[in-house]
Amino acid sequence: MDQYKSPTSKQEAREIELKLTLPYPDRDDAIRMLRKAAPLSRKKSVQQNLLSVYYDTPEQELRKVRIALRVRRVDSSTGPVWVQTLKTGGASGSALTLRGEWEENVQSSDLDLKALKASPWRDIDPDGTLHKALAPCFITRFERTTWQVRAMDQSLIEVALDIGQIESDGKYAPICELELELKAGTTSSLLDLAQGLATSVALVPAGLSKAQRGYALADGTLDMPQRARPPKLRADQPLVEAAQQVFRETFYQFTRNLDILLLTDNAEVVHQARVGWRRLKSALRLFKPALVQERIPDVASMQRLLDALGRMRDLDVALVETLPLIAPVYTSGDPGRQLLWSNFIQATAEAAKSQRTTVRDAIRDPSVGATLLNITRYIEGISPTDAVGTESKSHRLESWAERHLRKLKRKLELAVEVATDKDSQHRARMLAKGLRYGVESTQSVLPNRISKRWLKKAAALQGSIGLSRDLQRLHQFAAEFGADAGLVEFLRGYGSGIGR
């Protein structure tokens, strides 16, 4: 997917595009930072107002097969122009997509069946019944600012900044995103330009298109936590292909939750962001023996964000889980203790509010976006040449996954045997999570009896060790926030008792 030339016919139309979110709280800040960015600062830009009407059936049959159909009004100096577009395919959850795209000028916002003749529509709707059921499902309104960038290798890239909103049945969602479309040249140049922008502009890879966000807004799921959606792997699938699918899905879970986190205080979003990152790291370890290691990107610059997410999660757990759990044990109807407890809860809530701001500031650090783009480049660049060793080239995924996960299970069992202090318990818990995430990611090719047994074992260990750690963190927070000495001692003793 590295070389691309402008199509010679509509039947060959393809779109290679990188979608990015600008995680700024103020849209004017996003515009100002982007205009100042070195790759664009001396280039002319063009502004257009765009309105797009997206169509689907009431059952969302186009959405189910990853097809987007829209009619867009483009305001120009000579008056409005209507363009009908059909898009197909694209790697699910990837910010870097290669899709089929067919466009034709039409007369109005109404669908024009004749304009779809040069597209695969006949294969999609051979008898015309689908077309009859199509109706508007949501719209987008935004101002687009575009720059044309010619790379050193003469690749031509269009940079489009979109600021506006999605609308569906009285519901609204903001649009503040960047699209880099490769008009001609190499995908490497497209990614190089994105990384050039990321040196000074905060960017987060976006796995959802405007159409996908529109559907999510319409059905009320746009701000819901993104949970794991392990890919359906094949038992005979090449290891590098399976690795790419797993990496892509876990990375999408992480970046999607980062995007949602900017808009909501839902504690589960923080949790799922951390789960996504740990699933990605677990997958990198699982497939490590089969892949060229020199290409895996350095993620050291992510540490500030990861630490901030970790503290945020600990505070959320304290407020939602552990504090309500042990409140009756401590207060026991005593007014004095109830006041001390209430003060501690208030201090924890204030710390959580402050920490959420810290997390969002960390997401807006350009170095985070630069690292996320490096990970995107790595995942999307995986190819058969990345396979190393005879094992990765000749063994079936089914047997390979089972064998490597069995080794991990044995490491976990040995770690549990010596888990007598905080550090060794933490190591056992991390191994339990690694086994659980590895099994979940490859469950579609593992024997059912094995995957169920291993998942149950890993989850049980993770839960029991996790409760002890959460209670220890509660004691640490109480001391940090200057809680009553008696309360601090109570929490220390309670946590130690559960830990035994």
Folded structure, characterized:
With 500 residues, the chain is α+β, with helices and mostly antiparallel strands. It has two domains: 3-222, Hypothetical Protein Pfu-838710-001, CATH 2.40.320; 277-499, CHAD domain (Alpha solenoid), CATH 1.40.20.10. The protein is built from 16 helices and ten strands. The chain has helices spanning 27-36, 61-64, 121-124, 129-133, 187-197, 210-218, 239-261, 267-286, 303-331, 335-363, 366-380, 389-394, 397-417, 422-442, 448-480, 485-499, and strands at 3-4, 14-21, 46-56, 67-74, 81-88, 96-106, 135-150, 156-168, 171-186, 204-205. It has an eight-stranded antiparallel β-barrel with strand order 2-6-5-4-3-7-8-9. Helix 14 (422-442) packs antiparallel against helix 15 (448-480). The longest helix is centred in the last third of the chain and has 33 residues, at 448-480. It is globular. Mean pLDDT is 92; it is low at 3-12.
Low-confidence stretches: 3-12
The CATH architecture of the largest domain can be named as Alpha solenoid
> Could you say which structural class the secondary elements and strand pairing correspond to?
alpha+beta
At the first level of CATH, the class of the largest domain is Mainly Alpha
In DSSP terms, counting alpha (H) and pi (I) runs of 4 or more, how many helices? 16
Helix content: 40-55%
What percentage of the residues does DSSP assign to strands (E)?
15-25%
Shape category: globular
Q: Kindly give the count of domains.
A: 2
Give the biggest sheet.
Answer: 8 strands, antiparallel, barrel
Distance between the termini: 55 Å
The fold-level CATH name of the largest domain is: CHAD domain
Per DSSP E runs of 2 or more residues, the count of β-strands stands at 10
Instruction: Report mean pLDDT, rounded to a whole number.
Output: 92
Gyration radius from CA atoms, angstroms: 25 Å
